[in-house]
Write a structure and sequence with these properties.
0% strand, 71% helix, mainly alpha
């Protein structure tokens, strides 16, 4: 029902048109690039967003964790939305979830090469956990 409503309100993103599929793909690629940039940038001199506090700050850590949850939840949703226009439901969902987990792993590894950043297993667990939860939500609600 949600997808029918979405296609009624937004015919520009209709899955039947090549232009609609291309727009979906471009939105997914742009969001993935933006998320990757935000996750791999320096904490002291970020290109996007505020600089991290120099000392431990619990509120900042909670904000970062929420950022991971929201960012990777949206990543699964946007990539599934782009892929379901060209692939079967199950395949699109599986690829979106696996891609989100792999991107989480890649960004954590890349953070270890940034001077003021380090890799975090907790962040990776949050990334993969929310990817699986959003995948389950999509499967149960939109199937």
């Amino acid at each position: 029902m949600i997808l029918k409503l979405q296609h009624t309100l937004l015919p520009i993103f209709s899955r039947q048109t090549v232009q609609g599929r291309l727009r979906r793909a471009l939105i997914a690629v742009a969001y993935t690039a933006l998320l990757t940039l935000v996750l791999v940038q320096s904490s002291a001199n970020p290109l996007i967003g505020p600089a991290a506090p120099r000392e431990f700050n619990l509120a900042w850590e909670i904000l970062l964790t929420l950022g991971h949850l929201i960012g990777f939840g949206l990543l699964v949703w946007v990539n599934w939305w782009a892929l379901v226009a060209v692939a079967p439901f199950w395949r699109a969902l599986l690829v979106a979830v696996i891609f989100a987990c792999l991107l989480g792993l890649l960004t954590e590894l890349l953070q270890s090469f940034v001077p003021d950043r380090s890799a975090s297993l907790f962040d990776l667990a949050c990334d993969c956990g929310i990817a699986l939860l959003v995948g389950l939500f999509i499967h149960r609600r939109l199937r």
